Amino acid sequence: MIPIELFILLSAMLFSVGLIGMLTKKNAIVILMCIEIMLNAANINFIAFAATYPAAPLAHIFVITAITVAAAEVGVGIAILLHAYKTRKTTNIDELTSLRW
Amino acid sequence: MVFGISFMEYAWLIPLFPVIAFVVVGFFGNKFKEGGGAIAIGSAVIAFALSALVAYEFFTGSGDAFAPEPFKWLAFGKYELNFGIYIDSLTCIMMLFASFISLLIFIYSIGYMHGEGKRKRRYYAEIALFLAGMLGLVLSSNYFEMFIFWEIMGVCSYLLIGFWAFRHPEGDEASVKAASAAKKAFLVTRLGDVCFMAGLFVLLWAFTSLDFTVLFDPANMATVDTGVIMLGALLLFGGVIGKSAQFPLQDWLPDAMAGPTTVSALIHAATMVKAGVYLVARSYPLFIQSAEVMLVVALIGGITAFIAATMALNNMNLKRVLAYSTISQLGYMILALGAGGYIIATEMAHGDVEATVGYTAGVFHMMNHAFFKALLFMCAGSVIHAVGTEDMRRMGGLSKKMRITSLTMLIGCLSIAGFPFLSGFWSKDMILEAVMEPSSLGLEGQIFMLLFVLALITAFMTAFYMFRLWFLTFKGKPRDASIHCHGESPKSMTMPLMILSVFAVGSGFLIFLGLNDIITFSVISGDFVVGGHGHTPGHILDAILTNVWTYVSLAVALIGILLAYLIYARGSLDPSRLTASGKSRLYRFLAARYFFPQLYDQISWKLGYSVAKGVDYVDKNMIDGTVNGLANSVVGSSGSLRKMQTGNVRDYLMYMAVGLISAVIVLYVLVTTGGL
Amino acid sequence: MVSFDITAFIDYVKPIAPHLILIVAALLAPAIGSRSEKMTAVFMTLAALSAIGVTAYMMYDGYTGTFAGMYSFNDFAGLMALLFLTVLSITSLMSVPGTERRRRNGEYFSLLAIATVGMMLVCSADELISLFIGIELASIMSFALVAMKKNDPRSSEAAVKYLITGGLSTALFIYGMSLIYGLTGTLNISGIIDHLAAADVTWSYMIATVTLLAGFGFKIGMVPFHAWVPDVYDGAPTPVTTFLAIGSKKMGFVVFFKIFLMLFMASHLITGTTHQLQWVFAILAAITMTVGNIVAVSQTSVKRMLAYSSIAQAGYILIVLPVATDYAMMGGLFYMIAHVFMKGGAFVVVAALAARGVGENISDYRGLSKRAPLLAFAMLLFLFSLAGIPPLVGFDAKFILFSSALEGGTWTWLVAVAVINSAISLYYYAKVVKAMYVDKGTTKDRLKIHFSFKVAVAVCAVAVVVIGVFPGPIIDLCGLGADAFLHP
Amino acid sequence: MDLFNDIPFMVLLLLVPLMGAVFAAFTHRNRNNAKWVAIIFSAVTLALTMVYAYVMATATVPYLDADSWTWIDTDYIVISFSLYVDGMSLLMMALTALLVLVVSIFSSSESNSANTFFALILAMEVGLMGVYMAHDYFLFYIFWEVTLIPMYFLISGWGGPRRHYAAIKFFIYTHVASLVMLIAIFAMATEAAAGGPLNFGFDEVKLALAGMDTFMQAALFGMLFLGFAAKMPLVPFHTWLPDAHVEAPTAGSVLLAGVMLKMGSYGIIRVCLDVFPEGAKAWQSAMIVIALVAIIYGAYACIAQNDLKKMVAFSSISHMGMVLLGIATLSSIGVSFAIFQMFAHGLITAVLFMVCGLVGHNAGTREISLLGGLAGKMPIFAAFMMFGFLASLGLPGLVGFVAEFGIIYSFFEYLQGTEYLWAVMFALASLLLTAGYYLWAMQRSIFGRETDKIDLSHVHDVSKPEGISMGIVCALIALFGLMPGIVMKVIETVQIAGVV
User: Do residues C94 and C140 touch, judged by C-beta distance below 8 A?
Assistant: First the structure.
């Protein structure tokens, strides 16, 4: 059996990748993708832990819910980005700085 | 009892009538003729009449001080402050001459202030209150009450000295000077008043009351530490120094000449400055508890008498010379009281029984001085009224145009100079005798010897400067053509002059007509009566006429008169020879009043304004600066913190990430260190 | 044969009855919205009011119950439901004159209703899953709501920012939840609390709790997870801003209470000492209120100033967490209720003025007392209430909350910080008051304010004054809520 | 008289001005109705106060009245609407009622949004009355803060050129001080509650804290003192005052200096001394030093001022220092005279600020260096100014003297037997300094050369309402100066725990 630490490590790495991606990327769509990566890191954790706690199967439900919610979020997100692109002609978040101070 | 009524019970009405006059004139004076002057005069008449009745009743009575149960004014803790009346012989004399002279001055004012228009209302209201203050003060049954009237007089003098503090008939410069003089008078006397107040504290604390009946009771006095009484007495004397213009607070009085001459007469002759002397006389039972206090009193009196006389020597302002002479004469009175008290104090300690004339001399001189100084001031006022200037250098030869004035003023000058058998002669010689008395007492005796010499020199200088004044004003030729003399003053002014000159001549004889019994002070020490009686008229006459010093002082005075005559009337002596044409250091020193004004200015400037500027700087820059600095730092940090909100969402994400990591670190630190 | 037992069904869904009302309303709203937006708003307001009625009745009845083992109704959930429903009705009311949205769209109200349902679900959630669903429901609806001003680039920019930062927060707390699950082996919240309270604070414990903290801290605008707040509040349509400020922020607090407050109290029961996370919360509370207040000082836009003040207010409410007593919890609830009316009222005024063309800058408010006296007076009440001037509700709230923090003496410094902040806040509130009342405006034209704004403002103003003067019943209610929450 | 016994005076004294404020607010902005509303309602309030005073004086327990209604009664917090009036409260209330009436008359020519102006003044009266009656810390704090708002608006709406700065400074500064006090109140209540529900009643807290140890007493005393000190204000927490006064309209200044500052000293006596007698002893020396510093510092600052109103403002600081000096002796004499001084200063300072307002309004400037010889053009004004200044410098026969005499005497008595007897010199020196700055100011402003720096051709003297309002106060100054026993009889009944 694969030790649980490896899963945690994997998820932590995924999470970090997502986080770093969010901090460094300028394109809003890429950032949305980074968020998805981070959500998936959490999902991996849930599944891995669920294996160690067979008595509590709710974790799987959580994961499925999370995936659904993430899909919805991305849906709304893309819509918003489209909207932004319509009004601002850009999805580069460095240029979306009219609201400040 | 007169007419079956005990007027002493109603003595509180005496100051009340002038107060009523003050209120009526103050609010409705312009509805009356002469700004309500008649009302003020009427109140003075009533006050004088009542005083006379009360005095008559007192002198025909048992002679014990009359002190009815006072009105409880304010009670706090175990203390009680009362309002009441206290009548003894001193009270009677004081209120008699104060109300009488004030009455004359009020009448004189009708003529003197005639041209003041609407401001007369203010004038009569204020002098009425002034009189009320003086009468209240002499009738007071305790120190607190006395202090209140004392201060009321102070404020009246402030108002009256500053009567021309705006729209002065002589122009703006004079207004400015009057305003400054009024302030100076109030502030300098207030310095004394603060001492007085401290004295009240000490006495109140020691006796839990300020009533004379309590304080002067030997039984109560015995329970209090002598040092405390001494402190209290000295602090009270501080008040006297301020009010009676004694060294070193004498300098307000010459400046106070900025007021109308009637006011000067009122302040100098009848009220205000006499209040200080009265306080010493009144507080004799306290003061004599300590010889040291009396020595201080005598010293201050002697020094004041001397230096004020020197300042008068070369002054050319008619009123100022009189002002200096007032200070000098007040010094005399204080000196006499101090010397007499010193004897009593030392005698009480030794148990000797001997009489002293000091108390009698001081009070007697106060009375005489009231008459002749009122006379002198009113004469001066008459002159000023006629010529419109106070500068003696611009006068001269006025005796032809102003016969009554010049004659009455001559009587005044002779009296103050101590010309034989005029009032000043008797009291001055009694003072000299009183100062001489303790000179046989050891080390302090030498001090009194010195004081005696000072007093003698003062007598010479007094004669000299008074006649210098008289000769410069009335004799010789008019020195300034631009000065036009209106001739003699109206009746309302000359009448009081003539009445007063009678008193200036004759009031001295009262000492042989029973006054010596009235003005006595005695204290029971052990089995003995110290101080008091033993001065029969014959004794006094004998003492004065057989005393060699009487003739010495007389000679000295005559030399003074002669010198003045030679210099200022005959012109056979050129004063510039003595003074190096006014350039000698001494001359300038005297003209600058011993540099006292500069000293006052320096002190008030350094201790007042400079410190104030410093405080203001601290307030604006440091304290308020801190407040504003704090506010500005908030606003400033707001400005910079706000820049964190760049608008770029990646920065926001960064803050979140940094926040996350720092939170973990903080938590780690907390966990490993076990919490804060 | 499967018989349909209607009473059994009602009993079954009773714990989520208010939610169901809103869901039905949300489904109907687009249909109505296509005909008349005004009607939709009124409809949604009525729906919210009927939900309020149902909730109030259930609370009055003393009802408690659990739906599907996931959502339970008790006094706390009921109280919070009332709060969110009030928010919904205020927001709906102020959305009637839809000048900020060009097209008729009933779905706007649907989104509002669904978001409210999400918030209410959070309050009654017993499990992490239900909690997560509630949060996401509210969040995703909010993302869309912020973008509702269709042609306004500022609105879309705000939405993008909200989306991205919100996404990160979602990622953070879901990651935290996964670690928590790993640590405790359960998704039941009370089970998690029992586990964590007894456990040693390890690295994974720390990372799990801090990621949760950061994720939910985002919702309440806790510094340094606050940076979206001013931009989003500024860019969003004012009704949505109101909704976010007085609604979704409270949801964040509920989550904090559910996890951390319970954790602290449980841990205190076990160890008798202060949990280390309490210190973290205390520090964050101090930073939050300070930053919020200080930055608010230099704002020129009323809306933005109110946004920063929202951050500051969140800082005050955060005091509840370190203090962690029944009294503090009650104070926190009271503060949240007070905040609904005072901050809500202020935003309604801003919206009402914006609807008549008055700008959002403080300088635009000059001379307002002459142009709209009652509105200006209401604004004055709201602002002074926010500043904590008696006898308005904001004062009572601060009074209770701050006084709760002095017990034991550990958090006196926090009260001192709060008090200093409160004084600073007076400066920027007074600036607006001064503009309205003291400064002379360029025009003296009377402003005609739409009726529904008037109603909303009046409701808030009356609440601010009446609760301010007679806080007793609300305190009792909050006490009930706190009791039901802390001692189920 | 039984006739009056059933009247709920305390509630009426809050309600009548409140009603007045509402009425005044709704009168027409440009008509003259507001001033009549203000005058009538404040006159009714004053009359009520007087009747109340009479009723209290004749009651079986003279000068003591209390009433309480449950207000907030929950498991966590218990607050009652508790009112309590004793001699000190009564005096301050009478002063409030009087000064509100006086400023209403004085300001009757106010035409700029007169309705709001008079509404604010009456609202102010509600707050002030409330502060002096409240007997529950919650209530006390509410009224305490409520007074700030009308004053803030009065300053920033009707003030001078730098009014915004002054108003916000006043508002925030005093608010901060109040908040410090609030923390202390929380701490007191928490300490008193000992785990139970927080009860903010004065009596309950006092009872529960009776056995508190000295350290805690001193700490809480210090915090409360800080709050009250900024209100009084004492150096160095005073800098809001000169700015506020300089910019405030006359009515605001009169109320601010006349009754609002007294809230601070009232609080010190009512709360600090009464609840923390041990704390008071611990702070005694510090209080004395602060008081002396305030007295001397204030007086010196006066000398340096060029603005007449600023000078008067600083003189308030000096005189309120005198109040603290009386309090700091912790003797019944000292505290009695401190209360007396609060009353006296309230009257005197009202005249002073009205005088300053007049000179600013009539001559167009209050800069002393620009004034001079005004007595010629404005004799009545000059008389009022002189009266006010002389009263303030402690002229015997006027009310200020009695207070200062008593306070300095109590200080002197306190110092007896210590080695610090010389300290009384500072208090005495202040009398001299006070006389100095007042006389100097008069010399330069109303006496001497008629100024040519400002146009005096249109200057007019005191108008009728102004004269009436100042006359009333001046008459009272003289009345209570000549018969201080009237006031002292009321003060005597005040019972404060920390006072021997």
Answer: no
